[in-house]
Structures are given as C-alpha cells and as structure tokens.
Amino acid sequence: MIEKKAFLLFSLIVVILMYLIPYLVLSGVDGPFTFIFWTGLSIVYLIFVAISMRR
Amino acid sequence: MEQLAVYISVIIYLGVGSAIAFFSKKFLKRDFKDFYTASGRFGTLLATLSYAATTYSAFMFIGLVGLAYTTGVGALGFELIYFVGTLLLLYFIAPRYWRIHRRYGYVSPAEVLSARYGSRAVGASVTLLALVSLIPYASSQVIGVAMAAEGASGGTIPYVTAVVIAVAVALLWSMIAGMWSVGWTDVFQGMIMLLTGFLMVFWVYSWGYSARGFDFASLGPLSYVPNQYWSFSTFLNMTIPWFFFAITNPQVVQRLFSPKDHKTLRSMIVWFGAYGLLFTLLVTLLGLMLRGLTIEGSFPMVTYRDSVTPTLLGMAPLWIGVLGLVAVLAASVSTIDGILLTLSSMAARDIYESYRPESTRLKLLVGRATLGVLALACTAFALARPGFIVDLSVLSSSLLLPQAPIVIGMFLWKRGGRASAVLTLISGFAVAISLYFTKMTPLGVPMNAWTIIVSSIVYLLAASFERGPEGIEVFLGVGGEES
C-alpha cells in the first residue's frame, strides 16, 4: 500500500512538472530546452513505471 | 508509373493483412467471448502491439505531424501528457480490469460498469455515449487515410475511393475472426507504423539537415510554450480528455482483457510505453523538422495542418511516399477496426442481450450487424470532412470524459449505484456538448475542465447519498486485491 501511495505521489509530481516547468520556467526560452525537458521527464517516468511493475 | 506503384503497394498491404487475418482464424473458438476478447489468450507481443496500434492512429501520422508543424513543441507536451496519464492509470486500473474479466468473464467495458453499479441502465448509457462519441474519432481516421492517399498518389486515388477502401478493410478484418484478426493485423500494422516513422524522420533529416543539423532555435516561438496557439488554457483544455483516454475509450479498455496472465499484462504496459514514447518523439520531430525546412524555404508553407504529411508524401521519393501512405493506412485501419469491434460488442452485450436475454443466440449476429451500421456512419461522416483530425479526436475524448469519475470510483469507493453513475454521465455529457457548441468558457475555465469538475462533483454528491448495490464487496475485492 505504501508503495502504491509512493507511486501515486511521484506520478502526480511528474504530471504537475509536465504542466508547470514549460509554462513557468522555460516560457519564452528559444531552443531545444522545452522539447528536451518533456522528453527527458517522460523517459524517467517510463523507467520508473517499468521498475515499479517488476516489483 | 507512380500511380501503379501506389496501387500495387496498397494491394500488397491489403493482401498480406487479409492473409494474416484469415490465418488468425485458427485461434478463434466459435463463441461470443472469444470473438470479442480472445478469452484472455494474447501473449506479450500480440497484446502490446495490439494496444499500441489501436491507440496510435492517423491522429499521429497526419494530425500530430500537422499540429507540431503549425503550433510547435506544445504538440509534444500535449501527447506526452497523454503518455504519462496513460501509464499512471494503467498501473492502477489495468490489473483490476484484467482480474475482473478473468473472474467474471465480462466481454465489454460497459458490462463491468453495469455489474459494479448494479444496473444494466449504466452499461446501456455508457454504450450510447460511446456510440455517439466515437463516430468522430473513427471518422477522423478515415479522413487521414483519404488525405494521405490523395497526397501520395498526386490525386490519382480520389478521396471517396480511399474512404471506401479504409472502411471496407477495417470492417473485413474485424469480422473475419474478431479480436484475433484485429490483434494479429495490429501486430503487422504496428510494426509498419514504427518502422515508417523511423524511415520518414531519417529521410527528412538526410534530405534537409545532413549538412548542418536541425536547430530548434530556428523555430522561434514554436520551440517553446506559451506561444500564439498554446496558451495555458488551450493546453489544459486539450490535455484533460487525453489524460483520461486509457479509461474512457472503450476500444483500449477492452484490450486489457486480452493478456493471458498478469505478467503479460505488466509487460504489455511497459512495452507499450516504450513504443508510445518512441513513436511520439518521431512523429513530433517530423512535424518540427518540416516546419524548420519551411522557414528556410525548402518545404512549402502548408496552411491546412492536416495537409502537411500528404504534402510530404507527394514530394518525397516514391518509396517514402508509398511507405508513408501504407503506414497511414495501417495506423487508421488498426484503430477503426478496434473501435468497430468494441462498439459492436457493447451494442450486442450491453443493449441487446441486456434487454433481450431470451435471444442470446442472436447476439453475435446483432454485433456483426452493428459493425456494418457503424462502418456506414463513419463513411458518411468522413465524406462530410467536418474538421481537423486532432480536433475531432479530442472532441470524441471530451464527450467520453464523464466516464472518468465512475470508472475510478468503481474501484475505490463502495458507495454509489445506478443513479450516481447515470447522473454523472448525463451531467458531464450535457456540460461538454453545451460548452462545445456555445464555445463558452465560464470564469475563463476551458470546456474539458468544466466537464471533469462537474461530472466529478455530481458523482461524489450523488454517491454520498446512494449505497452501492449488494455484493459490491466481493466485486471490489476482486478488482482491488493485490497480485
């Protein structure tokens, strides 16, 4: 149960970051940064899900 | 010569796909459950590529490429919010659906809701909602194929012919062996889609960028958000229904019944994630790179965004044009046949059999007849060309959004029965449809945020006053037990 709560918490943080970082921190910044941020966070999340699924 | 090559490639695709569909018939047991769910006998490859090919559609090859081209990197964020939301929801919900299907043998997603909320009216309401909502989505697939065919063939394959071919193939492949033929052809089509995505990106890069590389900064405001298109409100409005796609679109929920065991289900989720992320990156990058080429004058400025991929297919060497057309066809057909199959199972099970239990022998016939009616409806809708592919797709998911609270609540809360579920669906649908047509955004909050807020509040309030039906503890126990 604790594991599931931790999974949910981490997932919600990822979702919030997906919305906020590009619109607040990277807003108006030219170049590949927004693309890299969304891609990188999605890769991290996929790895996190894969590890969680193995347990 | 080019026209001949296009026709030959489409015929080869149709021939190989049909051969695979007929081959899959040997797996089919002649009963209703096996026709619609493969009785939970799919291995990892079949389950993964079937889920991926059903999910990823012309929306990606035509809609998302065009959206990235026109609006910039926000298109990537929009699709990756879907990606994260889907993995999150599948982690919690997929094992529960799978176990419930295993224990009770449910065939359609609406049937599970009927059982949980103790009334066939719930399943019937969800089915009616899905029948109305998914026509625009299925039709947008057909529109994608027809546009790609026009582009790749230089107009020699007329729009109407392409529409008829796409719908007829989807209908044929779903009727041959139900979930088995759809699943096996999805494997074939899923591989074509990913491989072609790689080849198209590789070709565009070597054609336009091999000397100096692709510079994101050349895109200017298209390389970040917010920009002229992606205000935060627009981003929120488009991502909300996409976030819940995995639990509100019955054609993908039904795929959760097909893995042969729990380990296969978990592998399916992870491999689907890998496929989805790669495919999303390829498709979005393609749109952004083409926009970069437009800025420097190597690729024409395309103002109608669904025409970006068809324009590329018309300009590219023959092999890329032909492969691209086949990939769009594969992406579209693999989604349409999945939708047709699921909707027909819901019509047969949750409306016909539910209200005419004495006529169960005819339900497979009803299911097949529904396939035909839906195919005709999709053809008519596609011929009207009512809007952009992305907009039609998001509209479908917006109308399905009111299901989200009752699906999540089904596994988490013991309260709530028929009234709670039906009221939630009606109120959410009413909000979605009225705000869509009036284009109103009360208090500056976008339509889809209102839909999920209103339907969630109605669900919580109504379920607070309504007990769950008898036997729900057993139902929740199966759905919620640890593996």
Automatic annotation (TrEMBL), chain B:
Transmembrane regions: 6-24, 45-69, 75-94, 121-139, 159-180, 192-209, 229-247, 268-290, 318-343, 364-383, 389-412, 419-437, 443-462
Show the InterPro entries listed in the entry. Answer: Na/Glc_symporter_sf, Na/solute_symporter, Sodium:Solute_Symporter
Q: How does it sit in the membrane?
A: Multi-pass membrane protein
Q: Name one Pfam family in it.
A: SSF
- CDD domains per UniProt: SLC5sbd
Coarse class of the protein's main subcellular location: membrane
Q: Which GO terms describe its cellular component?
A: plasma membrane
Q: Where in the cell is it found?
A: Cell membrane
Q: Which UniProt keywords apply?
A: Cell membrane, Ion transport, Membrane, Sodium, Sodium transport, Symport, Transmembrane, Transmembrane helix, Transport
Family annotation (Gene3D superfamilies) = Sodium/glucose cotransporter (1.20.1730.10)
Q: Name one GO molecular function term.
A: symporter activity
- Origin, by domain of life? Archaea
The Gene Ontology biological process terms listed for this entry are: sodium ion transport
Protein family according to the UniProt entry: Belongs to the sodium:solute symporter (SSF) (TC 2.A.21) family.
The name this protein carries in UniProt is Sodium:solute symporter family protein
Organism of origin is Thermoproteota archaeon
